[in-house]
Design a protein that fits this description.
The chain has helices at 9-27, 30-45, 59-92. With 121 residues, the chain is an all-alpha fold. It has one domain. 11% of the residues are buried.
Length: 121
């Protein structure tokens, strides 16, 4: 990944962690994705209270927007991978399947409308 020439050090560390997360996702390495996600969380927790972005259109502003877009795409990829893993576990080990938080429960009487089954959190 190329960094903006005047990018903030926090944005640079964010890009490094995004690179690690992307590499782990591409390898399909679940433990590495977990570690990279934890590292991303740590970097996000260390975000400066305010980053001086200078004028709109500055290098720092572009770098931050680029990192935010990339983070959003990778977050969606992590969520998709997690959903696939849950479906695989449910398929292979149905006894370990958890009831969904929302949705009709098997064998629950229908009361018309949403009913209690939709509120079983």
């Amino acid at each position: 990944m190329t960094f903006a020439t005047n990018s903030h050090p926090w944005i640079d560390s964010l890009q490094v962690e995004l690179d690690a997360l992307e590499a782990a996702l591409l390898r399909g390495d679940a433990p590495a994705v977990e570690r990279a996600s934890a590292a991303m969380h740590q970097v996000l927790q260390q975000a400066p209270k305010s980053i001086v972005m200078a004028a709109p259109g500055s290098d720092q502003q572009h770098a931050l927007l680029s990192a935010a877009e990339r983070f959003a795409r990778l977050r969606q990829a992590v969520l998709r991978a997690n959903a696939q893993s849950q479906r695989a576990v449910a398929s292979l080990l149905p006894q370990h399947t958890q009831q969904p938080t929302y949705g009709r429960q098997v064998g629950a009487p229908s009361t018309g409308g949403a009913g209690r089954a939709f509120l079983s959190a």
